[in-house]
Amino acid sequence: MSGKKREQIQRSDSEWREALTPEQFHVLREKGTERAFTGAYVDRHDPTTYVCAGCGQELFDSRQKYDSGSGWPSFYAAADPAGIETDTDSAHGMVRTEVHCARCGGHLGHVFNDGPEPTGLRYCINSASLRAEPLKK
Ligand code: FE
Questions:
Q1: CA of 100 relative to ligand 1 center, distance in Å
Q2: Domains along the chain?
């Protein structure tokens, strides 16, 4: 992803453990994945801004959220493309594109090429990596 470099947030593992719940820590800092259909935001569609549960940066919002049927919150675009970055993830015998917060590096989920128009992308994001706030803008 292109875009301006943001101020970076760096914390030690022990600082993150103190700041996050065990589930948030597992997803954000250990690239964990919550079980499908268990996350708090899978079926949420009211006007919402989703910020990073690690650092509070705005990541996604309800206007790009859709029901993918996957069991994870799904978005066809980020609220601000500069808010996220991607990496190649070869874990678990698959090659996927990992998505993380550009500011704190927290793992969010993966992006796939089977999303709806206008982007054709599906950002498959763990609820545990997000915090819901009233829609901004
Ligand atoms: Fe973050």
A1: 8
A2: 13-134 (2.170.150.20)
